[in-house]
Amino acid sequence: MVEQITSGIKISVETFFEGTFYKNYKINFAFGYQVTITNQSKHTVQLNARHWTIMDALNDTIEVEGDGVIGKKPVLNPGDSHTYNSGCLLTGPIGAMRGYYKMVNLNSTKTFNVAIPTFKLSAPYALN
């Protein structure tokens, strides 16, 4: 698990390998990750958007942006946590992801970014 705190918001990420499958005659490696966002600040915040950088050892790095996370824009009061699961496909057995969440402090209406620490994606047999 990797963790990072930005402006009182703690991001924790756990990863897992889900397996391989063929798509368009090419092998793909499926990875899942669970993110927990914990509000350790004194302010109520809302997650509005996300930005990911996905690095695939056998492919180009791609950038992905979107509203919320898995269709939600969670509001976190002080002490609250929000956990969700998601995943990505890579063309190789090793990669990594990092990014940030665009959040707003609902008390002051100021927006800020919360860093998502870099986490590794690797098939268990890839490093042997």
Automatic annotation (TrEMBL):
SUPFAM superfamilies: ApaG-like (SSF110069). Signal peptide: none annotated. Residues 3-128 form the ApaG domain. It comes from the Bacteria. It holds the Pfam family DUF525. InterPro entries: ApaG-like, ApaG_domain, ApaG_sf. Gene3D superfamilies: ApaG domain. This is Co2+/Mg2+ efflux protein ApaG. It comes from Aurantibacter aestuarii.
